[in-house]
Design a protein that fits this description.
It is built from six helices and no strands. It is mainly alpha-helical. It folds into two domains: 55 residues; 67 residues, no CATH class.
């Protein structure tokens, strides 16, 4: 019961997010473009809605033990990792900091397969760089791929 309630609450928040994303004001020039300031929020909100709808109609996982000691240590490590990520942002830039964040988070969560570690921790920031800096033409300062558009 609690699992479906949580998924339902997340779904309600996501629908609200999508509603607000569709209300982002656009100037006349960007309204005609294929990619504008509404595109990514709408895409991410839609994907999250689809995932949550899929989770809503599946069997909930086994008993979740958030009170157990290993889960608490893992949670503390992830919170500390997020703090480190925020501190690293100003020195390394978003792309290198995101690579370090993903690699460390995957290791904390127990992933040990080297191909997955490399593919996810390098592939996601590289895809973000391609999308943001190359496709959208928005320069994000940093030392990794920091040549600008």
């Amino acid at each position: 019961m609690g699992y479906r309630l949580l998924i339902g609450l997340l779904l309600a928040v996501t629908v609200g997010y999508l509603t607000l994303a569709r209300r982002i004001p656009l100037d006349p020039w960007s309204a005609e473009e294929l990619v504008n300031s509404r595109t990514l929020p709408t895409l991410f909100g839609s994907l999250l809605t689809l995932v949550l709808l899929g989770l809503l109609f599946t069997q909930p996982p086994g008993a979740l033990r958030f009170g157990s000691r290993p889960q608490g240590i893992r949670l503390f490590a992830l919170v500390a990792l997020l703090g480190s990520f925020i501190a690293l942002l100003q020195y390394a830039g978003i792309w290198l900091a995101m690579t370090a964040l993903l690699l460390a988070a995957l290791l904390i969560m127990g992933e040990r397969r080297l191909p997955w570690l490399v593919a996810l921790s390098v592939g996601i920031p590289f895809g973000g760089w391609l999308l943001v800096e190359r496709w959208l033409g928005v320069y994000v300062p940093g030392i990794l791929f920091g040549t600008g558009a």
